[in-house]
Amino acid sequence: MTIDGTRFGEITIDGRTYDHDVVIRLSGEIVKRKKKLSRKLYGTSHTLSKDEEGL
Question: Alpha-carbon distance 54 to 44, whole Å?
Fold first, then answer.
């Protein structure tokens, strides 16, 4: 897996561009980040919640 580049509001991984936050799992799977869990727990989405990691 290669992160090809980043720009404000997007990230390109292995040639595919995402315009939303992503979580890269140890298995290499890339999934859309669900920020509601962190906002609910911490009041901000700038912190990754443990519950969010397991989804």
Answer: 19
Instruction: Enumerate the β-bridge partners of residue 49.
Output: none
- Asked whether 33 and 18 are in contact (CB, 8 A), the reply is no
6: CB partners within 8 A, 6+ apart = 12
> Three-state SS string across the chain, please?
CCEEEEECCEEEECCEEECCCEEECCCCCEEECCCHHHHHHHCCCCCCCHHHHCC
- Per-residue pLDDT tens listing for the chain (55 residues): 899 999 999 999 999 999 999 988 889 999 998 888 888 888 888 887 777 766 5
In angstroms, the CA 19 to CA 47 distance is 19
